[in-house]
Amino acid sequence: MAHLSIAVVAEPIDLAAATAELAAGRTDIGAVVTFTGLCRDEGGTLEALELEHYPGMAEAEITRIAESAAARFDVDTIAVRHRYGKVRPGEVIVLVATASKHRQAAFEAASFIMDFLKTHAPFWKKEHKATGPSGWVAAKSSDDDAEARWKNPI
Amino acid sequence: MAHLSIAVVAEPIDLAAATAELAAGRTDIGAVVTFTGLCRDEGGTLEALELEHYPGMAEAEITRIAESAAARFDVDTIAVRHRYGKVRPGEVIVLVATASKHRQAAFEAASFIMDFLKTHAPFWKKEHKATGPSGWVAAKSSDDDAEARWKNPI
Amino acid sequence: MRLLYFAWVRERIGAAEETIEPPATVETVGDLLRWLRTRGDAYEQALTDPTAVRVALDQFHAEHDASIAGVREVALFPPMTGG
Amino acid sequence: MRLLYFAWVRERIGAAEETIEPPATVETVGDLLRWLRTRGDAYEQALTDPTAVRVALDQFHAEHDASIAGVREVALFPPMTGG
Q1: Chains D and C touch (3+ CB pairs under 8 A)
Q2: Which of A31, B114, C53, C62 meets the CB 3.0–4.6 Å disulfide criterion with C66?
Q3: ipTM score assigned to the predicted complex
Q4: Which residue intervals are annotated with compositional bias (Basic and acidic residues) in the record (chains A, B) (predicted)?
Q5: What is the CATH classification number for the domain harbouring D38?
Q6: Residues of B in contact with D59 (CB under 8 A)
Q7: SS3 A97
Q8: Could you give the number of structural domains in chain C?
Q9: pLDDT digit of tens for each residue in chain D (83 aa)?
């Protein structure tokens, strides 16, 4: 079974710190893939995204998604970090890192985990503009489509 | 057109340094994917891989592969670092980092670039065991198969 | 039974959590949503479109036809937007 | 015309590069490989299986039927194992 490292955190996420431990001291890891999801602000009007989450279930559901990826792809290690609270434009919202012997498994596991995080992890984003709170970000049907890609039997 | 940053280097590759610049000061990047390929030594007998390369063509071919990925996927930035010379087990051989608005393009561009690097970038690996040089690593047919995935018309 | 509300479900109901004792006729998630809507305008407004409301039973995602027998914690929330 | 050799092609030929003037009848990469094999045992041993040899013309990958007219730099090497 793969090694899992899951955390839901209020502090900024450090890519280097989270990935350094993945292959540290190992010589049987051939591939490390990381995905970093950043807070975007294309219009220049966003002050912050406020991420509400379901404490307890957030960690549990991310763990279930990571376990599902580990069962499906030949990966050695999976690390996930997810922010909650206020996140500023340019800051990291989510980090997924996968380590495996061969590259395809690492790529697929990271992509699979992201698709299911989007649709299954209990987080909700509220936009804060300079003028005040402006509403909840709506779920995207493109995320449902992305998840549906993986629906073939394991 | 996407921003490209390509380097073939003799020094160790630093994931954090290479990726920090990708989204630095930007608020329109939503996704960063990195692939790190590491020197493996499963038997515990490898002292180093010696990477021979074709100076000039190595940079040119990696640039062509990155340009091809940029034309095919909606990515903003592509960075590639490739080592040459002696690489010890656990060290990074290659780093590919892609930044885009949405995650699918970043994942696909990084995966595409890796598949073509394996089959098109002019590098050759020689194994050095504790007992001396032990021969050239043979190309894998699985790498040809991986590249063939992308052969459908752009 | 402990109820948790998140995001705009929480805002419309005006509470993050409460403890309730639904009548014995409330057997499924769907029953629970219908019963909650009888509890006042805030609930009616939050749950008026049940298809927009996602449910977790004891921290596992569940469908609206799932039984709530023996469940200790029910969470109601909009479609998730994490990651 | 400058010839470059890499990896085991380099080792078998015993040189990393050389400058040659092939006869006018040598028009394609395939012609060049055949002509090189007449230059001695080392070449014969390195190029005995032409399908194992990859070619770049002026730093672009090329097939064995490609013309070498006007080419300044020809590189011969095994299948690549980068990345």
Answers
A1: no
A2: C62
A3: 0.93
A4: 141-154
A5: 3.10.20.30
A6: 54, 56-57, 60-61
A7: strand
A8: 1
A9: 999 999 999 999 999 999 999 999 999 999 999 999 999 999 999 999 999 999 999 999 999 999 999 999 999 999 999 99
